[in-house]
Each structure stands twice: as structure tokens, then as C-alpha cells.
Amino acid sequence: MKDYQRYVEAFNPEPGWAEAWAKLAREAGARYGVLTTKHHDGFCLFDSALTTYSARHGGAGRDLVREWVEAMRAEGLGVGLYYSLVDWHHPDCPATGDRQHPLRHDPASPERDAQGDWSRYVAYFHGQLVELCTNYGRIDHLVVDFSYWDYAGEKWGATEIQNKLRTLQPQMTFNDRWGREPRKRIPRPSYAGDYEQTEQNIPREGLRDDAGQPMPWEAWFTLTNSWCYSATDDLWKSPATLIRALVNCVSKDGNLLLNVATDARGRVPERAVQTLREMGAWLRLNGESIYGAGSAPLDKPEWGRYTFKSGRLYAHVLDPVIGNITLPGLRGRVREGRWLASESEVLICDYWNPEVQSFDGPDDIFFNFAAPTAWTYPLPDERDTVLRFLLNDDPATAQERARLDAERERTVRERRAF
């Protein structure tokens, strides 16, 4: 750990870093952000009364969490705080036979065989979580990380601390890493969080608990392949890849949280700035299909994905199609179509020669961007062209919409119950 100390001393975000981060988050179309207040290394970005291993006593000499929280609020964004349950610096945490500790194979490491007091460590991190939920005003989200092997659930004193934090911040949501997928289990343990998270993975379909009920969830992804700043990792995900990942998540009733890693001066790499701003520009035109939207009562189409909101079906056309584009099973159910970015009319059409051929399903209908509708036209937006279709209120549509609304309402009630 002594080799790490030089990074602690060098870490000193430049003035205005927090305001720049918050402005970029708003430009990217984010509605909230989550700041790492302490990671597995144990170094705190906040001024804690329980340790001097913090930015307040390090190279920065100040409370960085406070600067960030105030900047986010100034931009009208929700405030989320991340806190690692693991602490490789604390003498009572690495001393417990932790099979994740980076020095576990180092024979010269005093931490490897030391004997600590686990209850003292639990009291320590409980105290720090109380500080975070007391000293910075309203906190919208708390993200804890991570549980593994026998370090899960009540090993962390999860019920006690979560109840205490919910009293301090009754509106705050929790993620589900106090244990191993506790929200999925029926009956749910008392420390189950409000939503599940999928790290570096988007599930094949929306998540459900053991009773088959849908679960709120969020996917976590890096912009490169590194969680932390790396000057040598140049494998950046393109804006199109990330836009499509966002659509993928929303189409399965999920959310997307992107990891942004900065240098020791708190500067966001220019490539990340460009990517996030491009995502924001796309969302300013197409956000109607994302914000407040979710899964559609239809199977995934071959050319892309659907999202759905309040009787409006959003078709995300991701792959070029030869000729007109099929809307499977929607004959007689589509009232109007518009290209979302410009409100241009989308032409609803049939086979170009219906008396000669009808190879697709009899319930299918088609659309295209111009006439003649049998011709092939380039996609207006190669990243994701979004169309809004208004559906008729036929019984099947209304019944399925009522079912989806009931499921979402049940999910909201469950979250409020915690």
C-alpha cells in the first residue's frame, strides 16, 4: 500500500472540476450522476471524522464530495454516491482473510496475516455511510459495492445500516449489492435493495425475481475497457454503440449508467467529452423514446428494437432494410407514424403489389421514409433512427397496456415500501 501513497499525494482536481463534470453530465442527457466517494483502496473523497486517509488530508486538501454535490444540484441533476464496502487500507478489514485483497500473496505484507477486529470495521464503515447521508443534504441514490463469498448480507450488518440510512434519507434508492442478488429471492431479505445491477452486461431480457415479477435494473459500463483512468487504454466505445446500449436497456425496462474516469487533475478525457456530448445531442432529438419509456408488448423486430410509453410505440431502426420495413402483427393497429427527430411523416404502406404476393404474415403492415414505398432509402440516422407510431385503442393493445401499467405500478409500490 505504500506504493499507492504517491498517487494520494498527487491527486488534486483543478478548480472548477466539479462544475465541468456536472455541466457535461447535463449536456450528455443524464438525469443524475453517481460519484465514487471511496473505492476498495479506502481513500475517501469526503471529509470523514473517522479517518485522515482522505482528500481533505491528502494532496487536494479539501472535501471533493461537497464540491461535486453542490455542482450537480446547481445543474438540476440528481445526486448519487458510491461507497465500497471493502477497504484495503483499514487495518481491521484486510485482516479478515479477504480472498480479494491485492496483497494476499505478498509474503512481506503485514496485512496478510494480521488479526483485526471485524466488528470494529463494520462500525467504521457504518459511521462513514451515516456521514455521507447526513452532511450533504438530500441524497437521491446510494450505491454500495460489493458482496462476495461469505462477505454478504448480515456480515455487513446490512439490515441495521440500511434501516438507519432510510430514516436519514427516506427518498433515497439503494442498489442491491448488500448480498448476492437479494432482490431476486422470494421472500426478499430485509436488506434487499430497490434495483438490481448488471455490470458490463445487458441481459437477454428484462430481469424478474423468483416469483416471475419484473425487477428494476441498471447496467454499468465503462467508456473504454478500464474502470479507472488509463492513458494507454484507447479502446473507446463509439457513441453509436453506447446509444444502442441505452436503447437495449430501456427496451427491457432497464437503465444505463456509464463510468467516466478522469485524470489526477479531475479532467475528463476529450474523447469521453465528445462521446457524451454526441449522446446528449441524440437524446435531445430522441429522448421522448427513452425518458419514462420501457418495454413494448411486442416481440423484438428483426431490424432493431421497440420502446413504449403511453400508447406510443417507438421503433428504433438500427439495421438498414431493403425495401419497405415490416411492423409484424400491427396491421390495423397503427394510426400514424413520425420520424421523431424531425416530426416528418412516415408512410404506412402495404405490399407494393398486394394482388400478386403476400409472403409475410397476414397481420403485418409496413412503413418507409418516402415514396415509392417499395424503394430502398438510407436510414436518416445510422446510429439509431427512431419512429413514433400511434396505436389504435383496440382491445388487445389496451389490455396489454393495462397489464404493463399494473406491473410498473407494483414495482413502484415495492420500492416505496422499503
Characterize the structure shown.
By secondary structure, the protein is α/β, with parallel strands linked by helices. The protein folds into two domains: 2-286, Glycosidases (TIM Barrel, Alpha-Beta Barrel); 304-407, Immunoglobulin-like. The protein is 25% helix and 18% strand. The strands form four sheets. It has a five-stranded antiparallel sheet, covered by helices on one side. Strand 1, helix 3 (64-74) and strand 2 (78-84) form a beta-alpha-beta unit. The longest helix is centred in the C-terminal third of the chain and has 23 residues, at 395-417. It is elongated. The model has no long low-confidence stretch (mean pLDDT 92).
Give a concise summary.
With 418 residues, the chain is α/β, with parallel strands linked by helices. 25% of the residues lie in helices and 18% in strands.
Give the SSE layout.
Elements lengths: L4 H6 L6 H11 L4 E7 L25 H11 L3 E7 L33 H15 L8 E5 L12 H11 L4 E2 L21 E4 L17 E6 L16 H12 L3 E6 L10 H17 L17 E6 L2 E6 L7 E3 L6 E6 L4 E2 L1 E3 L15 E4 L16 E7 L3 H23 L1
Parallel strand pairs: 1-2, 2-3, 3-4, 5-6, 6-7
Antiparallel strand pairs: 8-9, 9-15, 10-14, 11-12, 11-15, 13-14
Helix pairs in contact: 2-3, 2-7, 6-7
Q: What is the gyration radius calculated from CA atoms? A: 25 Å
Percent of sequence in beta strands = 15-25%
Largest β-sheet summary: 5 strands, antiparallel
The level of helicity is 25-40%
Summed up, the helix count is 8
Structural class: alpha/beta
Query: What is the element string, with H for helices and E for strands?
Result: HHEHEHEHEEEHEHEEEEEEEEH
Per the principal axes of the C-alpha atoms, what is the gross shape? elongated
Quick check: average pLDDT? 92
CATH-assigned fold name of the largest domain = TIM Barrel
The total number of structural domains is 2
* Uncertain regions spanning at least 5 consecutive residues: none
- The CATH homologous superfamily of the largest domain corresponds to Glycosidases
Q: Which CATH architecture of the largest domain would you pick?
A: Alpha-Beta Barrel
First and last CA, distance = 39 Å
* Overall strand count: 15
Q: What topology, given as strand order, has the largest sheet?
A: 8-9-15-11-12
CATH class assignment of the largest domain: Alpha Beta
